[in-house]
Amino acid sequence: MTVDAIHATNVRKVYQTRRWAGWRHRGADGGGRVDDGAVEALSGVSMTIRPGERVGLLGRNGAGKTTFLKIASTLLTPTSGEVLVFGHDVDRDADRVRPLIAVVPQEGKPFFHLTPREQVYTYLRARGFDRTTAKQRTDEALAQMGIEEVADRLSVTLSGGQRQRTMVATVIATEAPLLFLDEPTIGMDPFARRAVWECLRRLTRKGSTILLTTHYLDEAEALAERLYIVDRGRVLVEGTADALKHRVGGTLRVSVPGGDAVRALFAPFGNCVADAEAVHVITEPAQLNEIMDLALRHGLHATVGPVTLEEAFLRAVGRSIDDEAS
Amino acid sequence: MGAFARLPTFRGLGPFLITELRVQLHENMAVATSMTIQAVLLIFVTILAPQYLAVALVGAIIFSFFTLGQRVWNEAAYVRIDHRLNQLYGASPLAPEAYFLGMAGGILLAYLPPILVLVVVAEAILHFSAATAVTLALTSVAVWLFAVSFGYVVSTVFQDMRTIWPYASLFYNLFGILPPVFYPYGLLQPASAVPIALALPPSAATGLVQNALAPGLLSSGDVVLATGSLAAEAAAMFLFAVYWSRRSVRER
Fold first, then answer.
1. Are residues A158 and A115 in the same domain?
2. Alpha carbon of A24: minimum distance to chain B alpha carbons (Å)
3. Cis status, amide bond into B190, omega within 30 of 0
4. Alpha-carbon Rg for chain A in angstroms
5. Are the beta carbons of B91 and A180 separated by less than 8 Å?
6. DSSP per residue over A14-30, as a string?
7. Do A74 and B163 touch (CB under 8 A)?
8. Which of A229, A244, A259 is the last residue of a domain?
9. Nearest CA in chain A to B250
10. pLDDT of B208-239, one tens digit each?
């Protein structure tokens, strides 16, 4: 029987607010609820990730993504619940888990006074790789991340995107069985992001498992085979990007500029998701003509496109916000 | 003491020490200027009270090892707060105690050359006896161990670099300059403060070295107090830092 890469059961994390909280750590995510000075960042998260999967964790700021990642990567103690990584309890058996994992921390930066080559190489050496393997893996990772040209410049002289690529190169070079990447492509240009995606796909083909968080929904859709949408410390929905999109209630999105009045007008045709500029009606092709007629009659400009993961996300999280309000 | 459920292994110590050494060597201006305070104080002593130069020279050596704790304090906090690299290394096979000791050792090696220059100058002027040289070496190691352990432990409780700078500077300069480190024990007033000074690591060390330079300066009771407190504080602080490095790798 194959052991799950991650098997999390009912994981809760409550940060206790301290009198000296200004000094000490509090929730990395900012927390979900505040009761009697306690902040509940995770409210019973369960998930299973099989070896070789690429899984994305989506959620708003403060949803609990980083908290879960930190717990699963042995960097944070859960209040209750259990996380097993390849069968080892991350809380009680962290020393067995750590050789199996590697982490790109959120907003992590390489040592400013090391070059990218030194950063990757010395990290591999600290993990126990011999010199030859470390050098070979370093060269490969730097090439895959497209930072060979700056590989011998001090990181302090690099751009934010180049530093982030150095961080990703540092971790992918390990080819660890389980990689945690917390917003790995933040600050990268589109070419660099695609290079990261390709690297991560290659790693999973070689057997690694990847759990990443991102706010780029195109990245989640392009990269993750399965997604968890979390909000306020709970898993709202889980599934493939296609499955999540189907849950929205249609395959087409009609976008009409306007606010609540427009939303009321189009509500009968399907689920409506509003953002700052427009109302997006999620509907089926059969209703398209009727919607366009209505828009024309009211002098509104309507555009049509396929439903995106963003709609699915807004729909899932929007409903969660509505539930909370009610 | 759950963090000691597994004995410390120091796995990865060598490579991480070299990592930190490389980082420090790239900051050569910091290394080059690390003797500024000591040099200024030595100049003052040479001009104002040249008869105390011998004491000030050994004090400068001890003080140099003591302030390496401030560098560990700043570096550990900076790497954790600004770079989040403690997470990169924490979630890896590198032993947490190797992370602490590797950082302290890398900083020591980088800053050792200017200290050795100071030692050579002191030797050229003072012509250390074997007993003085051994006392100086052992007390320097003890002071370094205490200072870097303390610096690492305290670095983990801060959230903001701006808060750290004044505290770190205050602590190391207060305990490295105010007690009789750069001046003889005979000048310390009131006399009742002598046992307190002998219980503090940097001044305990300089007390022992001053006693080796001028045997009989301290009573045998004072020597026992200085030796005991320095050894106990260094060992206890180091063991606590090893324990704390394991415990603090995971946030609570």
1. yes
2. 6
3. yes
4. 22
5. yes
6. EEEP-TTTTTS---TT-
7. no
8. A244
9. A75
10. 999 999 999 999 999 999 999 999 999 999 99
